[in-house]
Write a structure and sequence with these properties.
This protein is mainly α. It has 13 helices and no strands. Helix 8 packs across helix 9 and helix 12 runs antiparallel to helix 13. It is flat and about 80 Å long. The two termini are 23 Å apart.
Length: 320
């Protein structure tokens, strides 16, 4: 019996799931509205509230479990959204119950407020870090990596003489490489773009070379039998074979690009960027702005990874 039939055989399951979610989410929201924000009003008795908050989280978790039953689109997407809502509300309630100072751990509500009040500065920082540094560096590193991979596959002496060093350079930690490049190129955003390009370059070279060389000998012999030109063999056999390896490297590089841009900003900037904002606000104990910058960096990173994954899904044939 499939999971769908199991849920259908229990018509009260949907009602109990909705009731558990209503009690869990609604109860936590009510607790957040009842308790004063840290630093405002009399601190509550944390122990008295702790049992209630944990009980509401447990009830909400039962609701998430019920929402995950079945094979529908909602069953695949709702649990993650509901878990995020419960985590945010639970964190807000616990921080308010224990009156944790905002200078130590800000509440999610305070982080959202910082996101709104400092939106113009944070959006400018996101543009600098994501577009000018991570994205441009990713594109430059990918283009150079693909060109280098083609040369390595074409000329064997490059494979033997250069590829081992590509693997060696890809293992250098970004925290060791970034200060050297920032010192050499300057404090403006191009130095971070260079750091990102260098970080992306070698994984792309290694992945593309592995992919281009993984074409089956039988397919290459078949193209040779058909008297196909080298460019036809390359287009019809080598490139399709290399795409899974290449997209694997690009997905890893998309994550490395944003991390590299933020880390490189710790070693010197012209006053813009998410890494600079995190560093400067930590020194000022403005942790609400720090968390707001982290939220924006996470959203940009997930969007970047999703963009590469969407390109992979479009260009690669579906696997049975």
């Amino acid at each position: 019996m499939t999971a769908v039939r199991t849920v259908a055989a229990r018509p009260g399951a949907a009602l109990s799931t909705a009731a558990a979610l209503l009690v869990g989410v609604g109860g936590l929201l009510l607790v957040c509205l009842t308790l004063p924000a840290p630093g405002e009003g009399t601190p509550p008795d944390a122990r008295a509230w702790l049992a209630g908050i944990l009980a509401l989280l447990a009830v909400g978790a039962l609701g998430v479990r019920g929402a995950a039953q079945g094979e529908s689109r909602a069953a695949r997407t709702l649990p993650a959204t509901l878990t995020l809502i419960l985590a945010v509300l639970g964190t807000e309630a616990l921080l308010r119950a224990y009156a944790v100072p905002a200078g130590l751990i800000p509440t999610p509500g305070r982080v959202l407020s910082a996101l709104w009040t400092a939106r113009s500065v944070l959006l400018q920082d996101t543009y600098t870090t994501f577009v000018l540094e991570a994205l441009l560096g990713f594109l430059a590193g990918t283009a150079l990596g693909l060109g280098l991979a083609l040369l390595v596959v074409r000329f064997r002496f490059l494979e033997l003489g250069l590829l081992p060093y590509a693997a060696l350079f890809s293992s250098i930690p970004i925290v060791a490489l970034a200060p050297v490049i920032v010192k050499a190129v300057g404090l403006d955003w191009p130095s971070k773009t260079v750091v990102v390009a260098v970080t992306v370059l070698f994984p792309v070279v290694v992945g593309a070379v592995r992919g281009l060389q993984s074409a089956a000998p039988l397919h290459l012999d078949l193209m040779h039998t058909y008297a196909a030109r080298p460019e036809q063999t390359f287009r019809d056999v080598r490139i399709p074979t290399a795409l899974p390896f290449l997209f694997g490297a690009l997905k890893v590089s998309s994550t490395l690009a944003l991390i590299s841009a933020i880390v490189a900003e710790f070693f010197g900037t012209n006053g813009h960027g998410l890494g600079f904002r995190i560093q400067i606000e930590v020194g000022r104990f403005g942790l609400d702005v720090v968390w707001a910058a982290i939220v924006l960096a996470s959203i940009a990173g997930m969007a970047f990874f999703a963009l590469v994954s969407a390109a992979e899904a479009r260009l690669l044939p579906r696997r049975s």
